[in-house]
Write a structure and sequence with these properties.
alpha/beta, NAD(P)-bd_dom_sf, globular, three-stranded mixed sheet, seven-stranded parallel sheet, L-threonine 3-dehydrogenase, NAD(P)_epim/dehydratase, Epimerase_deHydtase, 318 residues, single chain, binds (3R)-3-hydroxy-L-norvaline
Length: 318
């Protein structure tokens, strides 16, 4: 069975459903620190789990005979910058507990890293798979430490750990929880709800992005790859596009011609964004395990607006 922590988060909310489609509803145990609201339509096992509680984590792994742990529970970049100590505690003790459980019960292991694992003196264009990583945010420090911990558990204990350095993820099912790239998700929602959006990230600030369906497929493809294909493990650069706010607005305008984009830059999140790469190079992931994406900015925008239109319309009529 598969254990998913942070199952009610932006990735978890969709990953649980996809895993249950592929492996069977009873094979995926969804966990989070809070109970699912009525919105979580997933059927299948759910358990309350605070990932900082090792006892609780071990109990669930043992009870359900877990053989794969997908550890998603974490504090994202902007929230982590506002509460760095709380972020360190949750991000690092949660990860360590999950790795210890994987070691004790011989589980396969996945946790996301991020483009946030790079810092201001990392090459900004086509950032290589192997390069300097001196992030200046608590989130980035957590991600680099996480990558090193995962490699350590593989090297020292033989735990099959794997990871992906995710770009900003765009999705319409669950909102991201306090990230820096969230502006792009908000822009789609507000394009429909208000016809205008004030971006907290400045014009011309490039960041890597990916549509959630591609992110979910990348997790499954990586986890199913033969271990001996993996030279890099923790964690692979993956991306689908590098965009700045104007690029997203221009494609939205193809569907909503009257859409207007303004700027209300948030210095803290702008500083985080500027410390990250403009575009990362994903050739290693393509070469080692066949990473690929289906969605580009045009097709992602078309799907996002269509799905949001229908959902927001329903809430209007409901
Ligand atoms: C964040 N969405 O903004 C996350 C992600 C690359 C961005 O790590 O913090």
């Amino acid at each position: 069975r598969i254990l998913v922590t942070g199952a009610l988060g932006q990735i978890g909310s969709e990953l649980v459903g996809k895993l249950r489609d592929v492996y069977g509803e009873t094979q995926v145990v969804a966990t989070d620190i809070r109970k699912p609201g009525t919105t979580v339509t997933e059927s299948g096992p759910f358990e309350l789990l605070d990932v900082t509680d090792a006892k609780q984590m071990f109990a669930i792994v043992q009870t359900y005979k877990i053989d794969t742990i997908l550890h998603l529970a974490a504090v994202l970049s902007a929230k982590a910058e506002a509460q760095p100590l709380a972020a360190w505690n949750l991000n690092m003790s949660g990860l360590l507990n999950a790795l210890e459980a994987a070691r004790a019960y011989q589980c396969k292991f996945f946790t996301p890293s991020s483009i946030g694992a790079f810092g201001p003196n990392t090459p900004k264009e086509q950032t290589p798979q192997d390069t300097i990583q001196r992030p200046t945010t608590m989130y980035g420090i957590n991600k680099v430490a996480g990558e090193l911990l995962c490699d350590y558990y593989c090297l020292k204990y033989g735990v099959d750990t794997r990871g992906l350095r995710f770009p900003g993820l765009i999705s319409h099912v669950a909102l991201p929880g306090g990230g820096t790239t969230d502006y792009a998700v908000e822009m789609y929602y507000e394009a429909i709800q208000k016809g205008t959006y004030a971006s907290y990230i400045a014009k011309g600030t490039y960041l890597d992005m990916m549509y959630m369906p591609d992110a979910l497929q990348a997790i499954l493809t990586l986890m199913e790859a033969d271990a001996d294909q993996l030279q890099h493990r923790n964690a692979y650069n993956v991306t689908a596009m590098s965009v700045q706010p104007e690029d997203v607005a221009a494609v939205i305008r193809k569907h909503i011609p009257s859409f207007t984009l303004e700027y209300r830059v948030d210095p803290m999140r702008q500083a985080i964004a500027e410390s990250w790469p403009n575009s990362i190079d994903a050739t290693t992931a393509k070469r080692e395990w066949g990473f690929k994406t289906e969605y580009d900015l045009q097709t992602m925008t078309q799907d996002m607006l269509a799905k949001l239109q229908c959902r927001l319309q329903n809430t209007k009529t409901a």
